[in-house]
Structure formats: C-alpha cells, structure tokens
Design a protein that fits this description.
By secondary structure, the chain is mainly alpha-helical. The chain has ten helices and two strands, in the order αααααααααββα. Strands 1-2 form a two-stranded antiparallel ribbon.
Amino acid sequence: MLSQYKSYFEETLQPVAKALRFIHPNFLTVIGIIPQLLFFYLMSQHNYGWAVIALAFSFIDMLDGMIARATHRVSAFGGFLDSVFDRLSDFLIISAFYVAGLVNLPLTATLLVSSFMVSYIRSRGSLASGGKLKFEVGWIERPERIILLFFVIVLQISIPNAQISGHSLAEVLIFFLTILTVITFFQRMSHAYDKLD
C-alpha cells in the first residue's frame, strides 16, 4: 500500500541522502541493523520508551537505496545485501515482542513466517517474471507492518494494562496484524497465479 508513495518519501528524504553521499550504501545497509538490535535488547529489558525511539530510527533502512541511486552505485550485491538485512531486521522487530512477553510464541511464529513469505513471494515472483512484475500488492507490506508495530509499542506505553477479552491490547493488535499479513500472502499468491505463465 505505502509502496505507491515511495517516490514521495524519497523526495522528502533527499536532503538527508545528499548529506550522507560520502557513505557507501552497502555500509549503510549493514549499520542500518543497529536500531533493530537496540530495539530487540530494549524490549527484552521492558524499556519500551527507548525501544520506540530505536524503532523510529528504522527509516535509515530507506537511505541505502536512495544513496546508491543518487551516487550511481546501484549493484546486484547491494540489492541482495539489503534484502538479507531486511529479513534480519524483520526477525529482530517481531521476535522482540515475544522476548518482552507481550505476545505468545505461536502468534510470534505465525507473524514471522507469514511476513517472510510475503517478502519471499515478492522476490521470487519478480524473478519468475524476469523483473517485469514487482508484486507490490496486498494490504500489509513491510513499511505498514513496521508502522503498525510502532503504534503497538506506543499504546503499550500509554495504556499498559489494557485488555480485550482477557488478552493484552498488544496481543490483540498483533493478532489482527498477523491476519492481515496472512491475507497479503494469499493476495500475492493470487497475483502470481494470474500473472505468471
């Protein structure tokens, strides 16, 4: 959904990208995992205030590709590296809710697997189509998922004892995020069935 606004976000962040032109984009990809590592650690310590700040710095993840394009350093390895670190980032962010005790293991595992499959279908579908299709379809892509998880932490800070039918608010919200992610998986599978020979 938010992918259609990618050009707008990139234009907004151009001043930041220009200021960081001297940094190699692959190096920025690698150090871009630091906010997620901090988020994981802070969540494990139940330090939600600092955790939400760490997660907010995930926007760094957008800068490596922007800098690569601006400095004509786009490469196949750079795209590969970015994809690998995105999956590491996803694991750290989602599993942090489990280590913090906010959600149970089955729900965490389901969100992890469905999130990974949504990303895999995009990558494999694009490859199968020879790059002609981007597979940016479905309700919940990676940016939406991170934004929604960000708001889950904000709500956890604001109303930590809120419950719905005996379940914590965080668990209920992540349950619905998981449902939307699974739906996105099937939306992309349907898109592949329709578009690929």
